[in-house]
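[step 3/7] inverse_fold.run input=structure_tokens len=183
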């Protein structure tokens, strides 16, 4: 079995003023969007990629220049307890994938509700297409952060394929209802 590829980590250690709280919330949101995980308060880590380095450098600069805070960005390829850090990072991605899986289940239930109510309209079809497009976009964002290959990613691919099949079946029913109404 091959050894796991070593990961270079970027670690942001920062301090922002406690007031206004929107500053801390802004930093938290940016780190969450990047997919970074917190090791403790005000210490976040992410695998080093060109995108993560760009975003963390920009955030560090913003904390120092615009938020009157302090921030240090370190890069390391040697982390004692790295397997725990990898597990923490992958668990965060799996949590995001779980949310998508839950929304896929909601998608199926929503379409089933329309079928039970016999709402075979183009409006419903368009709404369901938009919902599936949003799910796929959400998955793409999480997948982009999933640079270490979290386990649940493949489940989401299958779930999205199942959603697409459900949408195809619903579209066929809408077209059939339209054809019946015209005849």
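[step 3/7] decode complete -> sequence:
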């Amino acid at each position: 079995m091959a050894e796991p590829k070593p990961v270079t980590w970027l670690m942001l250690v920062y301090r922002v003023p406690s007031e206004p709280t929107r500053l801390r919330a802004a930093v938290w949101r940016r780190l969450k969007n990047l997919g970074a995980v917190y090791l403790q308060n005000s210490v976040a880590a992410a695998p080093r990629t060109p995108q993560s380095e760009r975003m963390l450098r920009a955030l560090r600069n913003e904390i120092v220049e615009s938020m009157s805070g302090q921030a240090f960005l370190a890069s390391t390829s040697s982390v004692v307890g790295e397997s725990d850090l990898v597990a923490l990072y992958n668990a965060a991605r799996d949590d995001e994938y779980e949310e998508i899986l839950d929304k896929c289940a909601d998608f199926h239930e929503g379409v089933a509700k329309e079928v039970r109510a016999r709402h075979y309209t183009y409006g419903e079809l368009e709404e369901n297409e938009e919902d599936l497009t949003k799910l796929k976009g959400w998955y793409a964002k999480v997948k982009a952060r999933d640079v270490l290959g979290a386990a649940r990613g493949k489940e989401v691919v299958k779930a999205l394929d199942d959603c697409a099949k459900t949408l195809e079946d619903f579209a066929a029913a809408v077209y059939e209802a339209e054809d019946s109404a015209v005849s």
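[step 4/7] annotate
Residues 14 and 92 are 21 Å apart (CA to CA).
The chain is about 65% helix and 15% strand.
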